Amino acid sequence: MAKTKRGKSLWNTPSKGRGTCPICLSTRIKLLYSATNSDGKTMPVCKKCSSVNAKTADKAVSTVNLGFRGKLRRELNRQKQTV
Ligand SMILES: [Zn+2]
User: Fold this and answer.
1) Fewer C-beta neighbours within 10 Å, C or N terminus of the chain?
2) What is this structure's pTM?
């Protein structure tokens, strides 16, 4: 079986398999695992967050317009706290 979570195959995936995790907001982390929220919607998350329950997944924020900058991450963390 091909390794889907490591090695050269990752380099062919969009953004090389990396991005910002919508749950823990880690930047440039590998998003190769998925979490399901209470709506049954799945989203790509990092390894750490692959085992979160639906309640935690509900708190995930959109990282679509999020860059890899710490400034944006701080902003997002603030949003998370107020909600
Ligand atoms: Zn995560």
Assistant:
1) N
2) 0.72
